[in-house]
Amino acid sequence: MSIKEQIMKTLKHEILTLTLKPGTILSETVLSERFQISRTPLRDVLKQLSLESYIDIYPKKGNLVSFIDLESVEQIIYLRSVLEKEIMKYLSAHLVLKGVHELKEILDRQKAAIHEVDATEQFLNLDDAFHAALFRLAGREFLWNLIQQSNVHYVRYRRLHMLRQEKLEEILTEHQRILEYMTRQETDKLDALIHHHLREDINSLYLQENFSDYIKV
Amino acid sequence: MSIKEQIMKTLKHEILTLTLKPGTILSETVLSERFQISRTPLRDVLKQLSLESYIDIYPKKGNLVSFIDLESVEQIIYLRSVLEKEIMKYLSAHLVLKGVHELKEILDRQKAAIHEVDATEQFLNLDDAFHAALFRLAGREFLWNLIQQSNVHYVRYRRLHMLRQEKLEEILTEHQRILEYMTRQETDKLDALIHHHLREDINSLYLQENFSDYIKV
DNA sequence: ACCACAAATCTTGTATACAAGTTTTGAGTA
DNA sequence: TACTCAAAACTTGTATACAAGATTTGTGGT
Q: Which nucleotides in chain D lie closer than 7 A to a protein CB?
């Protein structure tokens, strides 16, 4: 992996985990000192981060870690729920046994993760792994990757929501029911479940009340 | 509009209209002479074009206009057909009168465009305008813009298909029927129509036979 | 104390010299 | 003629000096 890719991976990770808080200034000179590299390749990295909405570039002023855009979150959730409904319907008819085992294994690991010390971190990774597997098994990995490129706001939104422990149990249960309905080919029940699974919290005011300084106005 | 934005717009247009054919070399020095600007801002433009799949950058070798990736075309068509089915269903229930007029006007202009000298060009723009209006009227402009960012392969694919005059009449007719079913709230007929409207030609071998040197292997 | 305004100090944007890798060229040799 | 292999001519990648704009600071005047 090239140095630029490493730097980008590092910065993306710090932004997604909110180690770098929304609004933080990312100065080219400061970063070039931190990573011991000149401004030119760093500018390449910042350009790409900007195109993927990780940061906002204000010409001749500076670069800020972007604030969480709830409009983007709502639109991505809608996109995913529409797509995943269709994908589940497809998988109900075409899912192979090997795929079922793969999904079950992810759920087992997720169950085990709940009571680990870094529960949230592990849980989020496995949540992504579950949904990514569904896309991949349906031959739609391309679209999963497409969505991932516009995911900064959604990922951070979800992370803040999951700080509440009780959410983890709820999500695991829903995952298990999704797999259940799919294998039993109860497609009619899937729609409502997916809708709830992805969409439930978007209208709650939890974020606005507790993390208002992270949110785009 | 900044100089960089102008250059980007120019290059994008030339690539999408196939003025710059897939495989064409875009050398930094040649472009910097053409646009009378140094390599640095040009590299910014090329970086962005690469992230949006307009070009492929081979480090230390060169930059090529990307070949048309049929896998990407199929995935985008699937994405659009799934999304647009849902959007039509929504609009059947919520479309306001003003929206109907707006869509009708686009179709009138499209009808008039068929026999113009630059029919294909005008027709494609109005085709986009029609579908964009549907997204916008459903409050999903965000997703339309998201799709547009991954559209290089699909746009060029469609352009080559539309070289056949008879396609234009067919598309216009389907647009008219879409609007018709929507206003009559015949949602059951919409699914199949959208599917056909977007998906029809993907399995034909027309492109592979006539433009094999534009296609990614 | 407060205001105005200019200068200093930040920021990113651009041009350019040089580094490093790849491809092409062509001379020398069998 | 055909082949080898090194040198030259390309390509993009990086570092850096300087340009240009935005912000902050601080000083002089009231």
A: 10-17, 20-23
DSSP-derived pairing of the beta strands A62-65 and A55-58:
antiparallel
In tens, the pLDDT along A92-113 reads: 899 888 899 999 999 999 999 9
Q: CB atoms < 10 A from the CB of B48, how many?
A: 19
User: What is the topology classification, in CATH, of domain A3-65?
Assistant: Arc Repressor Mutant, subunit A (1.10.10)
Cα–Cα distance between A86 and A216 in angstroms, integer?
A: 32
User: What's the alpha-carbon Rg for chain A, to the nearest Å?
Assistant: 19
Q: Do B142 and A75 touch (CB under 8 A)?
A: yes
pLDDT band per the 50, 70, 90 thresholds, residue A184: confident
Check residue A150 and give its pLDDT. 94
| Angle subtended at Cα B19 by Cα B17 and Cα B25, rounded to the nearest 5 degrees | 120
Phi and psi dihedrals of A63, rounded to 5? Answer: -120, 130
Residue range(s) of every CATH 1.20.120.530 domain in chain A: 70-214
The answer to whether strand D lies under 7 Å from the CB of residue A40 is: yes
Residue whose CA is minimally distant from C23 C1':
B61
Arch. (CATH architecture) of B70-214: Up-down Bundle (1.20)
